[in-house]
Amino acid sequence: MNREDAAGPPGRAPGIEEVSRELGADATLQRAAWILLSVLLAAVALGLFGRGGPLSDVELAAPDGSLALGYQRFIRYHSPDELTVSVLAQGQETSIWLDAQYAGQIQIERVTPEPAQVVSEGGALRFVFHTTPGARLRATFHFASQHYGPLEGWAAAGRGPRVPIRQLTYP
To answer: What is the pTM assigned to this prediction?
Structure first.
């Protein structure tokens, strides 16, 4: 093809429509990439991929105030995480109950402070702590998820109301 064939009709620059179409497609692709990147960064900042942020941080309390929970809604498979349970001690021993089905889907690495006793009963694990009456006990369960997908369970102080735990484990 010679230069005169590529130029098209007289008075028109060669390939203007083609160049214009290519630039338009590039600009559209670039805008889409910027939008996708912005959405991804916003999701990370909001905590959608775990480890903090308003969408990931969860703080719940029992209606009677007997127990408060703190945990991450979005967690990673086999990554270290924490469930914090805060209760007001009613006596020299305080029990925190953790749903056995939930506990079966995680690997509890350690509990701080260390419980005096751990007993499995009634579809739950009961962690017994030595406490001072009237003092607030804050127990942290350090764990790693052993399953992908939703993790659901509950925690309770003594025989008080159950507070739900709902998490999503990413690969």
So the answer is: 0.74
